């Protein structure tokens, strides 16, 4: 039984490329735990070549700072920002909690750190940034992040309670505002519903993976128990022990098949569902920014209508400026949404195909092994 390779799994994360050429290509092959910090080793190449430019070490907070710089150094109105991956949990308590969640509360085993999952998420995030037609042109920010050995000096990003409260009030005030463009009104409704569906699909798929992991563990316990039942040495007991030993081999084959299935499912669909669960938050944020510009434009228009002669010129300038920002955002947003829809369809087409192929292949391999065990049992002289 073979696991899906990383290169094969990458087929389900295709990005729709236009004429824009990225400044770099990147790979994140591994990560090193330094205390409670996970350091990602990022290999930076010239685009479309294997020529290595440099290798740098970055941690999750550096990614947060990169996202912050991209948002502040570029006009992000209308842009769907690539979503940051989940922050890795590297402390012992988190590892124990994750193990009990996946294998059950009664387990005495501690699962190994899955650094490869975090490496893939970080690599995918950087690829999406580099291939974005706007963010990928921010040469200074990307060069500082990817080509300087020392990470950029970052300020700690904090959001106080007043800031969060202000954002919540703003979203409540503008989030339900009726859009004057029917296309965007439908997109906002779609994004809300699809976001819920994407989150539910990702959570349910992960629950299925956890159930499969626990089932694999049960197969292993069953096999161990049957292999250990070698107490009596009379003729009947010997024959029973031979039968149990051979059956235990079948249980081990089932365990291995289920483990391969879990690994392949995680590489093919789990990552993809998690990515688009996060991506939908970025879509909703983009649409909210556009709605905020629309509200500002409508408020400026109303102010101009009521402005006194002395303030007429200033009100007109404000209305013109807000109208321009809104129209530019709308134009960019339409292009971004079209690209996002294409990317989503292509990604899920590849992901579902690879998922189905791995399911069929693993099932066939497991079946072959179990048939071999069954044949051996039937041929036993009992």
UniProtKB/TrEMBL annotation:
A single GO molecular function term of this UniProt record: phosphatidylinositol binding
Every PX domain range: 54-146
GO CC list: cytoplasm
InterPro entries xref list: AH/BAR_dom_sf (IPR027267), BAR_dom (IPR004148), PX_dom (IPR001683), PX_dom_sf (IPR036871)
Domain (BAR): residue spans on this chain: 182-370
Stated family: Belongs to the sorting nexin family.
Listed name of the protein: Sorting nexin-5
UniProt source species: Mizuhopecten yessoensis
């Amino acid at each position: 039984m073979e696991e899906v390779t990383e290169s094969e799994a990458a087929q389900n994360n295709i990005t729709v490329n236009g004429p824009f050429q990225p400044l770099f290509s990147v790979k994140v092959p591994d990560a090193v735990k330094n205390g409670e910090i996970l350091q990602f080793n990022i290999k930076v190449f010239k685009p479309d070549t294997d020529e290595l430019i440099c290798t740098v070490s970055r941690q999750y907070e550096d990614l947060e700072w990169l996202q912050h710089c991209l948002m502040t150094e570029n006009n992000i109105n209308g842009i769907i920002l690539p979503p940051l991956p989940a922050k890795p949990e590297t402390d012992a308590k988190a590892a124990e909690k994750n193990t009990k969640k996946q294998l059950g509360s009664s387990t005495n085993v501690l699962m190994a750190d899955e650094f490869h999952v975090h490496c893939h998420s970080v690599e995918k995030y950087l690829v999406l940034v580099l291939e974005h037609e706007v963010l990928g042109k921010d040469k200074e920010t990307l060069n500082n992040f990817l080509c300087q050995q020392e990470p950029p000096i970052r300020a700690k990003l904090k959001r106080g309670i007043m800031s969060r409260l202000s954002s919540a009030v703003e979203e409540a005030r503008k989030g339900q505002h009726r859009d004057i463009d029917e296309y965007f009104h439908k997109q906002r409704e779609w994004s809300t519903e699809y976001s819920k569906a994407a989150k539910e699909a990702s959570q349910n798929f992960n629950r299925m993976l956890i159930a499969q992991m626990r089932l694999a563990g049960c197969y292993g316990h069953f096999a161990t128990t049957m292999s250990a039942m070698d107490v009596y040495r009379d003729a009947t007991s010997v024959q029973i022990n031979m039968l149990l030993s051979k059956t235990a081999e079948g249980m081990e084959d089932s365990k291995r098949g289920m483990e391969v299935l879990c690994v392949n499912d995680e590489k093919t669909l789990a990552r993809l569902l998690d990515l688009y669960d996060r991506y939908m938050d970025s879509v909703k944020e983009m649409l909210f920014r556009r709605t905020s510009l629309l509200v500002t434009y409508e408020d400026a228009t109303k102010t101009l209508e009521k402005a006194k002669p002395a303030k007429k010129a200033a009100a007109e300038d404000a209305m013109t400026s807000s109208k321009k920002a809104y129209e530019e955002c709308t134009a960019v947003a339409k292009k971004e949404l079209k690209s996002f829809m294409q990317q989503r369809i292509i990604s899920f087409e590849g992901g579902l195909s690879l998922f189905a192929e791995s399911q069929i292949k693993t099932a066939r391999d497991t079946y072959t092994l179990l048939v071999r065990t069954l044949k051996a049992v039937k041929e036993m002289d009992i």
